[in-house]
Prior knowledge:
The complex is a heterodimer.
Chain A: H1 8-31, H2 45-71, H3 84-113, E1 120-121, E2 125-126, H4 135-169
Chain B: H1 2-22, H2 39-45, H3 49-54, H4 56-65, H5 70-95, H6 103-125, H7 129-161
Amino acid sequence: MQRPGYSRTAIIMHWLMAISIFFLFISSWWMLSLPLPSEDYKYRVLPFQLHKNIGITLIFVLGLLLYVRWIHRPAPVEPTAMTPAMHKLAAANHVVLYLTIFVCCLSGYLSSAHSGWTTTLWWVLDLPDWGEESEELNILFSDIHLWTCWILLALVAAHISGAIYHAFRRDGLVRRMIRW
Amino acid sequence: MAIVFGIFLTAMHGNEVLSHIVYKPGTAAVQDIPINCREDELIEEGLSFTECNLMGTTVKNVIVSSPDWFRNFHITLSAVGAVIAIISIVMGILLLDFRAWIVKPAVLVFGSLLVIDMISFLAIVNTGPLLRAMYLWDTLLWALIHVVLMSATMAGQHLNSD
């Protein structure tokens, strides 16, 4: 018999990603107001490094979440919880959401990789620079990062709105992501 | 709603810890060392020269407006707040399956967050006007949210016992 909700690993990954994404949004807003880096001004070093660490880790967490969801599929949603149209809309939102998280995180890393700043994952693992320092590529990936993150924020808002709607309806849908 | 607010609060407190670790007293912004506003970086970040030169002011405002005790106090309070906010997410999850035993721990957790908001509010009142302008309204809103969550949990108990 299929488990009615998602697996424990999927649930933990989901909530971990939720906190991380909002942490990254908030940090990106204030850390870009910090003075540009130089010999004297080092305010950006720690927040940027941490922002990159969490963002890159998020790619792996997303990969793990998708893998776990693939091998442990929950039972289908009760027909009373969703109309077919809503089901399609929710499925589309999830696909675009995962894709946007991936592109947003990857473009952030690629932008940094072409900026001349090195990335040491969690201060332990030196990540390779994908090519020479390039102002054009840095700006290109930075723009992709910026716009995909704005799209991500809109998708997350839609995702949360949907979750709250189903929580108030008490149709059992939200419980799939919180049951233990 | 407690789950959503718990996520926002964890992220917010985490950022508060980080920002106050970064805003170190005696650093370049307070010493009025000129910021190196290179043209290529201005283009990259979409900044004007004037904006770039003013970017040290936020850091300077926070450092100058903070009494000696404030930085460590705020970091500690935010760190504790982040931990309790994570617990509040768990409480929100448990509240979806409303049971009588969950009311006391949930009220305790939301109450603890309210106490942290109130301590934070009082601490900020005792700093300078620049910090008060930055933090007071946000803190008051969070206090209101935690009052609502606490009251709703208690009201839920009565509704479920009727």
